Amino acid sequence: MNSKEEDVLNQADETTLPDSSDLTAMLINISQLAPEQIKQLSPSALAYLGDAIYELYVRIFYLWPKQRPEAYHRSVVEQVKAETQALHLRSLTPYLRSHELEIVRRGRNAATGRPKRLNPEIYQQATSLEALVGYLYLTDYQRLTELLQKLHLEK
């Protein structure tokens, strides 16, 4: 790395740490799907998308303070594992609207092929959270950011 690149990295390290509202602004909704197309997506497809969006949110959250890659990995894995996702879903449930609860129900019913180490209920709840995140990412990004900010991620 040349000195110019090092200067840029050092300047980036000196910036203020973002709060959770800044983190959600970093996720950009690029969806161009029509509502009819979104309704045609299966709960499994929503969960597939939601898994990626949720993990991206968690990865961004753990970028600050600066750490070694192994520490980032451990922190992120702890938050994206099914058991923690199930806890997050339970913590969000009181805040969910009726149509969001319907997406959660559909996601739960779509959960199949769980890992053997997992209780089926935990796996269903994790899949439900992922389906909700995927759905909100495509339909109501502002609502998604509102709910993600309610999660209790620990540093």
Automatic annotation (TrEMBL):
InterPro entries on file: Mini3_fam, RNase_III_dom, RNase_III_sf
Residue ranges annotated for the RNase III domain, each copy included: 26-155
Any GO molecular function: ribonuclease III activity
Family annotation (CDD domains): RIBOc
Pfam families: Ribonuclease_3 (PF00636)
Subcellular localization: Cytoplasm
Entry's Gene Ontology cellular component terms: cytoplasm
SUPFAM superfamilies listed in its UniProt record: RNase III domain-like
Quaternary state and interactors: Homodimer.
Descriptive protein name: Mini-ribonuclease 3
The species this protein was found in: Richelia sinica FACHB-800
